[in-house]
Design brief:
heterodimer; A: alpha+beta; Glutaredoxin; B: Ubiquitin-like (UB roll); Alpha-Beta Plaits; 5 domains
Amino acid sequence: MSEPSTGGRTRDFASVLAEVKPEAERLLAEYPQRRSALLPILRAFQNVEGWLSPEAMSVCAAMVGEPLSVVESTASFYTLFYRRPIGKYMLQPCRNLSCTLRGAEPIMAHFRERLGVEHLQTTDDGLFSYEEVECLAACDRAPCMQVNLEFVFDLTADKVDAILAAMREGRYEVAALPQSAVPAKSWLVTQAPAKRSPGALRVASPDAPGGMGDRSGAQMVERLVEDPYPVVVRPTRERLVTDGAALLANDRDLAAVARDVRPDGAS
Amino acid sequence: MTTLPKEVTLSIDGLPVTVPEGTLLVEAAKAVQTDIPVYCYHPKLGPAGLCRICLVEIEKTPKLQIACNTVVAEGMVVRTQGPKVEDGRRAVLEFLLLNHPLDCPICDKGGECDLQDYSIAYGQGMSRLAERKELKPKAIDLGPTIVLDDERCIVCQRCSRFDEIVTNERSLVVKDRGQRDVIATATGAPYRSNFSGNVTELCPVGALTSKTYRFRSRPWDLQRTRTTCQQCSVGCALNVDERHGNVLRTMSVPSDDAVSEGWLCDRGRYNVGFYADERRITSPLGRFGDEWVQLSWDDAIELWATRLEEALASAGSASIGVLGGGRLLNEEILLVRHVMRALGIANVDWRTGRQRQASPGARGGTYDDLENAQAIVTLGRPPSQSAPVMDLRIRKAVLRNGARLISIGAHPASSFVPATHLARLSDLAGTLAEVERIAFVWDGIDAALGAEAEAALAKLAAEGKHVSVFVPGETPNARGAEALGLLPAGGALDTRAQLEAARGGTLRILSIFGANPVLHHPAGAAFVREALKRVPFVVATDLFLTETGRLAHLVLPAKAAFEKDGHSFDLTGAVHAVNAAHGAPPDALSDGEVMIALAAHLGIDLPSPRELADWATASPATIANGLGDAALCGSLAPARDGAAGLRLAIAAHPFAGGGTVYFDDRLGELRPRPGLLLSPATAQAAGIGEADLVDLAAGGRVLHDLVATLDGNALEGVVTIVDGLPEAPANDFGEGETVTLGNVRSSRALAGSVV
């Protein structure tokens, strides 16, 4: 059986939720405010799922009564949370000040070259996920890294090679992290760039034909009578369109409005 | 018990300063006019301590301290200048600029950018970074209004804190960490807020920019005029920035506007494209049969005056009707009233929409009353739709002062702060027992509900509670139109009676001032159209040829809000100056100027400018006897028919209902699509899914192709549609009517058919 090369679940979310739910409910009951349980619940999900899937974060948001944006913001702060499925070994060298002063940059360059991946990527064989992280609080033995959350200190290029070789041969001893999905190559989630130049908005100059300065009355009346209201922009699949009533809504799944609901030619 | 001193005295740059205890150093420095640079600090958002630019030297403290988060102490000696402070700020700026792209020449913020200004004041001029800069995404489409440049962002979090502290919508957050942190929304969710534009003003750098203003101008080329927003009845102060005759942007007046507290809603900020729309009427137009002819102003006024004189001579003043005025300024309203009174015309009514009453009676409150209320009761349409910036006060009252928000009727109060909903006013009994200060917000539509509320609040007031009342206007100066007398006097015809008289053939002339009853009057489009068609002579003043204007015989090009001077009332009755910021189209006249011209043709003496100004700026008299005043509202029974089934609620929407929205192509996605809102359970019972197309019908009237939205905040058994959409006019329907939904077309099937 061949493994898919890009990400895919090996366990459905319903079974993950069923497993985490009792623990989450216990955690929620432990705090006077529901939002205080956010971090432990996120951890409970990751302990089972191996990463924080979008479904898990949505469910967490509902459980603690916070918007999804806040949950994503919190999860993204901690390098202990993975927002994409990870490989067998999670390599997290520190990129912060002490480590950099002690040579983290050549170490990171070495990693990238040996693994053939960049920050927040996973090797094609699904063995290594690589993330350059902020301070791991082990400055006394910089440069340092964590492998599956266990520390490795005093890194050198040779040491990196030895570690990677041991991992490839299956001799490197470290506790496995849970995995419930095949990792995809890239982790990066970026927001969409502006599709058209947002500056290209039309404002008629007063002297342009049809502008305020134009006095051709018959033409003006024709335009006014034929088209007093501009045609409603037909929603496309890509474009999120405000629904009138929808703006009144609370906690609405905005993405759901993005569907193409109006067939061509319908009025 | 020792009493702590109320004030402390300290020294800032050698000058003694006495400020209240607990004042932040950055605020205390303003007392001696010392400018401490800030990025993350904002007076309305409080300190965050993120950017470190506000470093100052405090004697006996070894290291520099941030002025934004240091509280003053007695005898503190502070230096905000000097080599040590400047060194510190230079170091901070070096870090802030480390990865900055230095693209000032193409950045919209250039010229009004704090990063630019402080770099000149404190920066070192050269970067010492030898490594590659951290690259981040640029020109991110954050939502319908805002573009984000992550490389320019210094992550001061003013935007995300605004979205949390002020609006409580919390869609903007910081993601990631360290050098890689960015401002973002939840994955896949656009930044959508009624107040999104404020983040562009809060942003101290060029990271957040408005789509409508990107690459349009330099700030020093703009001509700024302060005026009052005329998009709704809240009355926010507004700076209009204009260049070469085009309104390029509007900005808030942050420091000294007691109404808005420095925030603007997106309707007020972005709905300015209509000023230069090519469909604006630029000269008087006469309709003769089906033929439209451009007229000179002289001919137009003479035509109007002649028809008025003929009608007065042949059928008397009762055969003449006057509608509209809620969009006019006080001076214009007074001139309309003066001319009509001089002609003996009493059939005058500003109410061309659903609202019956615009004044709160004797218990009218101020915005401070609203903010300090311990309980806020909204009746009917919530102010979040009809008076957005006022809703920020309500959110403030709820979030910061712990006020309770209670909505009554067919509309839930607010989506962004905790609120309770009660079906009937009687359910309120007892729940306000331990509350001292109560605010009622009524939409002025359902007179019966208003009268019921008046009885309830009179009872509360009799118990010694402080009760304040607010009635947001359906039109910006509804309060002015009502208070200054655009009402039928002495048994004269109100709007509906005028329309009925028109249908009966007894109305000879109808003059409509900046109103569109075909789209807005609850009698329904067909009824109003039929009425207008039977009037021999209809005059309409407007910016555009609306549905109503197209049925008129004479259409006069009006001036828009930024093109005229005068005054208006806000919904609390405060007077605000409106100043012309923008040249009107050459042949447009304000309704006031039109009245002056008409008076001249008819030989009517006008009040002196001095008298006019005195009347226009006097506080409005208390004309209503409380909410739901029978004399004002009439005895209109609400359209509740009590039958089982789905009830209809008709909501306002910030981007619906005004011609200015529909003739502003730049608003695009902000305009609502014809749709209906249902609770998930109600939708399920009706077999409707999210984004399905549905037809809504009641008594033979149908609205086709409404897009369904499921909303957990919606009330069970209620279908909500938006008022004032030309594509789906809701004025054929009555609030509370029983409706049926049918012809459901599944969004999935429809999506499949176009792929």
